[in-house]
Records
---
Amino acid sequence: MAKIQVIMGTTRTGRFNERVSPWVLQRLKDHRFDAELLDLRDYPLPFFDQLPPSVTLRNYPTADIARLGHKLDEADGFVILTGEYNHGYPAVLKNAIDHTHIEWHRKPVAYVGWGGVGGARVIEQLRLVAIELEMAPLRNAVHILPEVIRPAMQSKDPTDFSVFEPIEPKLKALADGLEWWVRALATARAADD
Ligand SMILES: Cc1cc2nc3c(=O)[nH]c(=O)nc-3n(C[C@H](O)[C@H](O)[C@H](O)COP(=O)(O)O)c2cc1C
């Protein structure tokens, strides 16, 4: 079963990510992925100030960075959950990415974003970052707009996924695309071994 890590790319108090992550995780499991959450709150990293990980590879300078690197290595693909901060990616997410490099190589990544324009700008930026990591960023994304964010925030039950009903087809398309790319790239990586 393909292993997908669902990365919670925001860590602030009161984050909307809490509302999104159970839904995405459940739908990926429904799709028969071996899906798990990777919460960046569990990886409190310093601001990156090391030699480039593209050079040092898995020669990790600290135990926390090694823990993140080994975790990313386990994945066949990723779904990044992200809010949009000042039209860009959350610093905590980019910082985690900058601490690593080869762990992401030749794996697919898809995005679920939210905000005034459904996280469209942050997702486009993250796709550019993915290219530098030699990843395959997927076209199909989920953009959560204010008309879905509002009822989701008001809903008392965090496991009430009915608020996401209008965008279920988008998540299904994301999962379908991810399945194809995970299979293609896992096969290609295995041929290299
Ligand atoms: C520092 C900061 C900057 C923000 N900038 C934007 C922005 O540029 N575009 C946008 O659509 N929303 C912006 N927002 C609103 C976020 O989309 C919203 O707070 C969202 O819930 C953030 O994700 P999170 O709750 O998981 O942290 C910003 C929020 C913060 C805290």
---
Amino acid sequence: MRPYVLAVAGKGGTGKTTLAALMIQALRAKGPVLAVDADPNANLGEALGIPVERTIGQLRDEILEHLADLPPGVPKDQLLELGLHECLVEDEGVDLLTMGHGEGPRCYCMVNHVLRRTIETLRGNYRYVVLDNEAGMEHLSRRTTQDVDALLVVAEPNPVSLRSAARIVGLAEELKLRVHRKFLVLNRVESEGLRGLEGAIREVGIPLIGAVPYDPGVAELAVAGRPLRELPPGSPARRAVEGILERLGLGKEG
Ligand SMILES: Nc1ncnc2c1ncn2[C@@H]1O[C@H](COP(=O)(O)OP(=O)(O)OP(=O)(O)O)[C@@H](O)[C@H]1O
Ligand SMILES: [Mg+2]
């Protein structure tokens, strides 16, 4: 089975993790979801209320540390595969994989190569993969955001944020990422809406798929350190995210 891969990108603090978590919440009822926190400053687990004990970054460090002590003949890829499964936290309808980061300036090439292959294989077990990316464009430029069905670029409804979104779109094109479709999502939209921003939105160069309103419920949960699954059904942000999924063909009926 090839899953539908959704990735979220955007400038710092635009709402990537919030959007990813709300999409995961909606999709987990429809089929198994692999949630990947690709931000070294990981917090998707917190947003989902899934505790993270081990990250891929930690696993890579441990493996590199012990590589020299391993008896010859122990296949490194099997070891990584085993470790990878320890990094996968299972919850109802969703498994979470947290990439984290390595400690030192080491060469992770070998480990990264095996990891990428293993994650590719793992993906086959899910109906959906949702990737929460880091703020910068590092992931895009390291080409880990590949083979994506829909890339959602999140921006806030102001010209500066929209220009950042345009830069991300430009970079994704320059790198020739294997992204099937790209969409713009506006987040924290206040009641005055998008008036006066039509030109700036057009200049981003990708279709606007939805506007998520400022939702006091989301802000309150963040302040209280509570997961987004406690956001009541029918709340404005939840409804907007459901609308986006519907337009992607991933709605309740899809
Ligand atoms: N629609 C919304 N309504 C109210 N608050 C929101 C909304 N979207 C996001 N927030 C709040 O804004 C803050 C930043 O959101 P979030 O962490 O999702 O952004 P991010 O893009 O993932 O940030 P980072 O770049 O640091 O990873 C959080 O406190 C979140 O609760
Ligand atoms: Mg985030």
---
Amino acid sequence: MSKRRAFWLGAGAMVAAMAVSGAAFAADKKQPKKKDYRAAALEVMKASFQARGQATLDRLNQDEAQAACSRSAAGEPLASDLKKKMEEAQSATVKYPADSKYLGSWKSGERIAQTGRGLQFSDDPSEPAGGNCYACHQLSQQEVAYGTIGPSLYRYGKLRGNSEPMLKYTWAKLWNAQAFNACSDMPRFGHKGILTEEQLKDVMALLFDPESPVNQ
Ligand code: HEC
């Protein structure tokens, strides 16, 4: 072997050795993998928030469905069989009204739909929470300030009628929106105890009562 060739072989080996030690160096630094970033982010959140009154830190703990939906939003789509299983599990949480009456008063339903207060540290826990429906939905035509994250519910009852299956579907959707859409953005009003059965009946009347401004 010529001296020259030996030199190049030696240099090549050195470069290879440097590459290997570089890799070892990177591995030593324990770069967190994708999964670990999630845990690290939760640590940061837990360290950043303080419990105050009814706003306690257990709100940072995701249930199984929320965790799967966060992974899906981060680019790991839900497998269709898992999505179906999640919806079945959420569906099983729905409690229908004991007296089988679905409709209360649309007037208080309108107030509940307008109210965005509740469950924050500054809210009185003995006061009922609001549904904040207008934040995401159009409902009556009189209210011009509404969000569009959800579909318009204007003329909901007029367009769909108030058959038993339609009442039942809508009740279940309000109780637990994820029963029909595993990763729904809509709050699970009954399941999470945001609205009481009484309040849900009033919101149902807002959607279905022919006298309600929603159906004018
Ligand atoms: C944070 C936003 C948000 C809030 C607040 C919200 N919703 Fe929704 N809602 C949605 C979205 C998004 C959808 C459509 C996607 C889905 O089904 O999850 C939806 C769907 C619905 C549907 C089903 C519509 C259909 O075509 O079958 C009904 C009914 C409904 N919402 C009623 C309400 C009522 C009543 C309230 C208040 C008590 C409310 N929503 C509060 C986001 C919201």
